[in-house]
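REQUEST ID: PR-0412
SUBMITTED BY: lab tech R.K.
PRIORITY: routine
TASK: structure prediction, single protein chain
INPUT:
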Amino acid sequence: MAEISPLMEQYGIIKRQHLKEVLFFRVGDFYEMFNDDAIEVSRLLNLTLTHRGDDPMCGVPYHAAKVYIARLLRLGKRIAICEQVTPPSKGKGLTERKVVEIISPGNTLEQEYLDQGANNFLGSLCYVKDYVAYSYIDISTGEFYSVKWKKNQTTQEMAKEIGRSTPKELILSMSMQKDEDILFVLNQFPNISVDYEQDWYFSKENSYKILLKQFGTTSLHSFSLTDDSPEIVPAGFLLEYLAKTTATQNQDRTFPQVTTLKT
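STATUS: complete
OUTPUT:
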């Protein structure tokens, strides 16, 4: 068995932390992709597939990366940007690298990645007791909405709300992964990028605190919400998700462009 180089060992450690994303791994003046990422991206973007040792590889120039990222976003892909965070070593030491940004179809602010004249909504769905709650946000404009419906109304209400908001990306709680009504509606919108997160990320208590912090209020009554409103849960989740994946919030992890939540 061939010995793994220090660079590929470093790549493997970082990639295992970002299995859902295409890892753009900075090596000098290029972002390199390896193994399954390289095979998929070379096919999607018609790039030349080469090898580093036994590992499939393809790359794009650093200065032109946004063009390729935009194309991948339009195909519903998520990208993890891994940068060199220490200067390249002139000796044998390995340059330190870490993921500095995750770009997905619904979380970007870059003009190069946005469809001009259309909203770029990121949406989230979860169960809250007998309800399905749906929230969606365009972080580039600050537009922010949250609604709910009874579970037994999902096929009608979800289709209506998704059709109205046309999100670029949807994040659902893991427990929805086998819900036939949810899957029936999602199949009507094949161009939406869909991902799932563990149910514990959808916490009413945490979401409530996040929303209070975002709006600088002591309650959510001004948004027609009570402490137990189902709409709170996906809305708070979206703000937390964006705080983790973007570098656009303030130091207190709030978003100045988001000033209201419409319900």
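NOTES: The first helix runs from residue 6 to 16.
REVIEWED BY: pending
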